[in-house]
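Example record

The entry below shows one chain as it appears in the dataset: sequence first, then C-alpha coordinates.
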Amino acid sequence: MDEKKLYKIGEVANMFHLSTGTLRHYEQAGLLQPEYIDTETGYRYYSIRQFEVLNTIGYLRVLDMPLSEIADFLQNRDTDIIEEKLVEQKRMIEQKQKELQLIARKIDHRLEHLRDSAASTLDEIKIETAPACRIVQMHSLMKPNNYLDLEYPIRKFQENQPEILVFLGKVGVGISKEQMEAGNFSQYELSFLILDNEDSYNGQIDEMPAQRCVSIRFRGSHTEAPAYYRKLLSFINKNSLEITGFSREITLIDNGLTNDPDKFVTEIRIPIA
Protein backbone atom coordinates (compact mmCIF):
# COMPACT_ATOMS: atom_id res chain seq x y z
CA MET A 1 0.00 0.00 0.00
CA ASP A 2 1.33 3.41 -0.96
CA GLU A 3 2.35 5.26 2.23
CA LYS A 4 1.88 8.61 0.49
CA LYS A 5 -1.60 7.90 -0.78
CA LEU A 6 -4.44 9.73 0.91
CA TYR A 7 -7.80 8.12 1.51
CA LYS A 8 -11.11 9.88 1.80
CA ILE A 9 -12.98 9.63 5.08
CA GLY A 10 -15.65 7.43 3.45
CA GLU A 11 -13.04 4.99 2.17
CA VAL A 12 -11.42 4.69 5.58
CA ALA A 13 -14.80 4.26 7.25
CA ASN A 14 -15.59 1.35 4.89
CA MET A 15 -12.20 -0.28 5.47
CA PHE A 16 -12.62 -0.29 9.24
CA HIS A 17 -16.40 -0.90 9.31
CA LEU A 18 -17.01 2.46 10.94
CA SER A 19 -19.26 5.39 10.14
CA THR A 20 -17.85 8.70 9.03
CA GLY A 21 -19.51 10.15 12.14
CA THR A 22 -17.41 7.84 14.33
CA LEU A 23 -14.21 9.02 12.64
CA ARG A 24 -15.22 12.62 13.21
CA HIS A 25 -15.99 11.77 16.83
CA TYR A 26 -12.53 10.24 17.23
CA GLU A 27 -11.08 13.45 15.85
CA GLN A 28 -13.06 15.62 18.28
CA ALA A 29 -12.02 13.34 21.18
CA GLY A 30 -8.35 13.79 20.27
CA LEU A 31 -7.81 10.15 19.32
CA LEU A 32 -7.22 10.45 15.60
CA GLN A 33 -6.30 13.46 13.48
CA PRO A 34 -6.67 13.30 9.67
CA GLU A 35 -3.46 13.45 7.65
CA TYR A 36 -4.87 16.37 5.70
CA ILE A 37 -7.97 18.57 5.79
CA ASP A 38 -8.93 20.51 2.68
CA THR A 39 -9.42 24.06 3.97
CA GLU A 40 -11.86 24.93 1.18
CA THR A 41 -14.10 21.87 1.27
CA GLY A 42 -13.46 20.61 4.81
CA TYR A 43 -12.92 17.11 3.41
CA ARG A 44 -10.80 14.84 5.60
CA TYR A 45 -8.07 12.60 4.19
CA TYR A 46 -6.14 9.86 5.93
CA SER A 47 -2.91 8.01 5.24
CA ILE A 48 -1.84 4.56 6.37
CA ARG A 49 -0.19 6.22 9.37
CA GLN A 50 -3.67 6.58 10.83
CA PHE A 51 -4.51 2.94 10.06
CA GLU A 52 -2.30 1.64 12.88
CA VAL A 53 -3.99 4.04 15.30
CA LEU A 54 -7.42 2.87 14.14
CA ASN A 55 -6.36 -0.75 14.64
CA THR A 56 -5.30 0.05 18.22
CA ILE A 57 -8.52 1.96 18.91
CA GLY A 58 -10.57 -0.91 17.48
CA TYR A 59 -8.75 -3.47 19.63
CA LEU A 60 -9.21 -1.46 22.82
CA ARG A 61 -12.86 -0.73 22.03
CA VAL A 62 -13.49 -4.48 21.71
CA LEU A 63 -12.18 -4.68 25.29
CA ASP A 64 -14.79 -2.01 26.18
CA MET A 65 -12.15 0.53 27.15
CA PRO A 66 -13.57 4.08 27.36
CA LEU A 67 -12.40 6.56 24.73
CA SER A 68 -10.82 8.77 27.40
CA GLU A 69 -8.64 5.84 28.52
CA ILE A 70 -7.74 5.05 24.92
CA ALA A 71 -6.74 8.67 24.29
CA ASP A 72 -4.54 8.60 27.38
CA PHE A 73 -2.82 5.43 26.22
CA LEU A 74 -2.25 6.73 22.68
CA GLN A 75 -0.48 9.75 24.17
CA ASN A 76 1.62 7.63 26.54
CA ARG A 77 2.19 4.27 24.91
CA ASP A 78 4.06 1.91 27.19
CA THR A 79 3.82 -1.81 28.02
CA ASP A 80 3.44 -1.11 31.74
CA ILE A 81 0.65 1.38 31.07
CA ILE A 82 -1.27 -0.95 28.76
CA GLU A 83 -0.89 -3.81 31.26
CA GLU A 84 -2.26 -1.61 34.04
CA LYS A 85 -5.18 -0.49 31.88
CA LEU A 86 -5.99 -4.03 30.78
CA VAL A 87 -5.95 -5.32 34.36
CA GLU A 88 -8.27 -2.51 35.43
CA GLN A 89 -10.53 -3.12 32.44
CA LYS A 90 -10.69 -6.83 33.29
CA ARG A 91 -11.72 -5.95 36.85
CA MET A 92 -14.48 -3.68 35.57
CA ILE A 93 -15.76 -6.34 33.17
CA GLU A 94 -15.84 -8.93 35.95
CA GLN A 95 -17.89 -6.48 38.04
CA LYS A 96 -20.28 -5.97 35.11
CA GLN A 97 -20.62 -9.74 34.78
CA LYS A 98 -21.66 -9.97 38.42
CA GLU A 99 -24.20 -7.19 37.90
CA LEU A 100 -25.60 -8.92 34.81
CA GLN A 101 -25.85 -12.23 36.69
CA LEU A 102 -27.77 -10.40 39.41
CA ILE A 103 -30.14 -8.92 36.83
CA ALA A 104 -30.60 -12.37 35.26
CA ARG A 105 -31.59 -13.82 38.65
CA LYS A 106 -34.05 -10.97 39.19
CA ILE A 107 -35.58 -11.67 35.77
CA ASP A 108 -35.89 -15.35 36.69
CA HIS A 109 -37.71 -14.39 39.90
CA ARG A 110 -40.08 -12.10 38.05
CA LEU A 111 -40.81 -14.71 35.37
CA GLU A 112 -41.51 -17.32 38.04
CA HIS A 113 -43.73 -14.86 39.89
CA LEU A 114 -45.62 -13.84 36.74
CA ARG A 115 -46.22 -17.41 35.58
CA ASP A 116 -47.32 -18.50 39.04
CA SER A 117 -49.70 -15.54 39.34
CA ALA A 118 -51.18 -16.05 35.88
CA ALA A 119 -51.86 -19.73 36.67
CA SER A 120 -53.50 -18.98 40.02
CA THR A 121 -56.38 -21.09 41.31
CA LEU A 122 -58.89 -18.45 42.37
CA ASP A 123 -61.38 -18.31 45.25
CA GLU A 124 -59.99 -21.43 46.91
CA ILE A 125 -58.89 -21.34 50.55
CA LYS A 126 -55.70 -23.25 51.21
CA ILE A 127 -53.61 -24.10 54.25
CA GLU A 128 -49.97 -23.81 53.24
CA THR A 129 -46.54 -22.91 54.53
CA ALA A 130 -45.29 -19.52 53.41
CA PRO A 131 -41.52 -19.78 52.84
CA ALA A 132 -39.04 -17.90 55.01
CA CYS A 133 -38.18 -14.50 53.60
CA ARG A 134 -36.55 -11.16 54.29
CA ILE A 135 -38.88 -8.19 54.48
CA VAL A 136 -38.78 -4.47 55.16
CA GLN A 137 -41.78 -3.23 57.15
CA MET A 138 -43.33 0.18 57.68
CA HIS A 139 -46.11 0.71 60.22
CA SER A 140 -48.57 3.38 59.15
CA LEU A 141 -52.32 3.58 58.67
CA MET A 142 -53.52 3.53 55.09
CA LYS A 143 -56.66 2.74 53.14
CA PRO A 144 -55.69 1.96 49.54
CA ASN A 145 -58.49 2.39 47.05
CA ASN A 146 -56.32 1.62 44.02
CA TYR A 147 -52.73 0.80 43.06
CA LEU A 148 -51.71 4.49 43.16
CA ASP A 149 -52.27 4.57 46.91
CA LEU A 150 -49.25 2.29 47.32
CA GLU A 151 -46.93 4.74 45.58
CA TYR A 152 -46.10 6.56 48.82
CA PRO A 153 -44.87 3.48 50.73
CA ILE A 154 -42.97 2.39 47.61
CA ARG A 155 -41.18 5.74 47.56
CA LYS A 156 -40.42 5.42 51.29
CA PHE A 157 -38.98 1.95 50.78
CA GLN A 158 -36.87 3.28 47.90
CA GLU A 159 -35.58 6.25 49.94
CA ASN A 160 -31.79 6.32 50.40
CA GLN A 161 -31.27 3.10 48.46
CA PRO A 162 -28.22 2.76 46.17
CA GLU A 163 -30.20 1.08 43.38
CA ILE A 164 -33.74 0.82 42.09
CA LEU A 165 -35.43 -2.22 43.59
CA VAL A 166 -37.82 -4.21 41.45
CA PHE A 167 -41.14 -3.83 43.23
CA LEU A 168 -43.24 -5.98 40.90
CA GLY A 169 -45.30 -8.26 43.14
CA LYS A 170 -43.12 -7.49 46.16
CA VAL A 171 -44.94 -4.66 47.94
CA GLY A 172 -47.95 -5.45 50.08
CA VAL A 173 -50.07 -4.37 53.01
CA GLY A 174 -51.21 -6.02 56.21
CA ILE A 175 -53.93 -5.95 58.88
CA SER A 176 -53.20 -6.77 62.51
CA LYS A 177 -54.59 -9.82 64.27
CA GLU A 178 -56.70 -7.58 66.54
CA GLN A 179 -58.31 -5.71 63.64
CA MET A 180 -59.03 -8.91 61.71
CA GLU A 181 -60.65 -10.54 64.74
CA ALA A 182 -62.74 -7.37 65.19
CA GLY A 183 -63.92 -7.63 61.58
CA ASN A 184 -62.15 -4.45 60.40
CA PHE A 185 -60.76 -5.20 56.95
CA SER A 186 -60.70 -1.85 55.14
CA GLN A 187 -57.83 -0.11 56.92
CA TYR A 188 -54.24 -1.37 56.84
CA GLU A 189 -51.66 -0.77 59.53
CA LEU A 190 -48.61 -2.22 57.81
CA SER A 191 -46.93 -2.01 54.43
CA PHE A 192 -44.02 -4.28 53.55
CA LEU A 193 -41.46 -5.03 50.87
CA ILE A 194 -40.32 -8.61 50.24
CA LEU A 195 -36.64 -8.79 49.32
CA ASP A 196 -35.19 -11.34 46.93
CA ASN A 197 -32.12 -13.19 48.23
CA GLU A 198 -29.81 -11.08 46.09
CA ASP A 199 -31.37 -7.74 47.07
CA SER A 200 -29.34 -5.40 49.24
CA TYR A 201 -31.13 -2.84 51.38
CA ASN A 202 -29.94 0.07 53.50
CA GLY A 203 -32.21 -0.13 56.52
CA GLN A 204 -33.89 -2.49 58.95
CA ILE A 205 -34.49 -5.96 57.47
CA ASP A 206 -36.63 -8.51 59.29
CA GLU A 207 -36.01 -12.21 58.83
CA MET A 208 -39.39 -13.90 58.66
CA PRO A 209 -39.44 -17.65 59.38
CA ALA A 210 -41.54 -20.06 57.38
CA GLN A 211 -45.14 -19.65 58.53
CA ARG A 212 -48.21 -21.87 58.35
CA CYS A 213 -51.04 -19.81 56.97
CA VAL A 214 -54.42 -19.82 55.31
CA SER A 215 -54.46 -18.17 51.92
CA ILE A 216 -56.69 -17.24 49.05
CA ARG A 217 -56.19 -15.66 45.64
CA PHE A 218 -58.93 -13.72 43.93
CA ARG A 219 -59.64 -11.60 40.90
CA GLY A 220 -59.34 -7.95 41.88
CA SER A 221 -57.27 -5.65 44.08
CA HIS A 222 -57.35 -4.22 47.61
CA THR A 223 -60.84 -2.75 47.24
CA GLU A 224 -62.26 -6.26 46.78
CA ALA A 225 -60.26 -7.72 49.68
CA PRO A 226 -62.73 -7.30 52.63
CA ALA A 227 -65.09 -9.99 51.30
CA TYR A 228 -62.20 -12.46 51.09
CA TYR A 229 -60.99 -11.60 54.59
CA ARG A 230 -64.45 -12.53 55.82
CA LYS A 231 -64.20 -15.87 54.00
CA LEU A 232 -60.80 -16.55 55.53
CA LEU A 233 -61.94 -15.59 59.04
CA SER A 234 -64.99 -17.84 58.70
CA PHE A 235 -62.70 -20.72 57.67
CA ILE A 236 -60.32 -20.02 60.57
CA ASN A 237 -63.14 -19.98 63.12
CA LYS A 238 -64.83 -23.04 61.65
CA ASN A 239 -61.58 -25.03 61.89
CA SER A 240 -60.65 -23.75 65.38
CA LEU A 241 -57.46 -22.12 64.13
CA GLU A 242 -55.71 -19.14 65.73
CA ILE A 243 -54.39 -16.05 63.96
CA THR A 244 -50.79 -15.42 65.01
CA GLY A 245 -49.90 -12.10 63.34
CA PHE A 246 -50.39 -9.59 60.57
CA SER A 247 -51.90 -10.63 57.27
CA ARG A 248 -49.86 -10.30 54.09
CA GLU A 249 -51.84 -8.98 51.14
CA ILE A 250 -50.19 -8.48 47.76
CA THR A 251 -51.71 -7.67 44.39
CA LEU A 252 -49.69 -10.09 42.27
CA ILE A 253 -50.96 -8.82 38.94
CA ASP A 254 -51.86 -5.15 38.91
CA ASN A 255 -51.66 -2.04 36.76
CA GLY A 256 -47.91 -2.50 36.46
CA LEU A 257 -48.55 -5.60 34.34
CA THR A 258 -51.90 -5.03 32.65
CA ASN A 259 -54.28 -2.19 31.86
CA ASP A 260 -57.23 -4.55 32.30
CA PRO A 261 -58.48 -4.51 35.93
CA ASP A 262 -60.38 -7.74 35.23
CA LYS A 263 -57.00 -9.49 35.09
CA PHE A 264 -55.78 -8.26 38.47
CA VAL A 265 -54.94 -11.04 40.95
CA THR A 266 -54.49 -10.46 44.69
CA GLU A 267 -53.36 -12.89 47.37
CA ILE A 268 -54.11 -12.76 51.10
CA ARG A 269 -52.16 -14.85 53.59
CA ILE A 270 -53.04 -14.99 57.29
CA PRO A 271 -50.56 -16.73 59.63
CA ILE A 272 -52.15 -19.36 61.87
CA ALA A 273 -51.37 -21.88 64.58
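Notes for this example: The chain has three domains: 7-77, 80-119, 122-271. The two ends are 85 Å apart (CA to CA).
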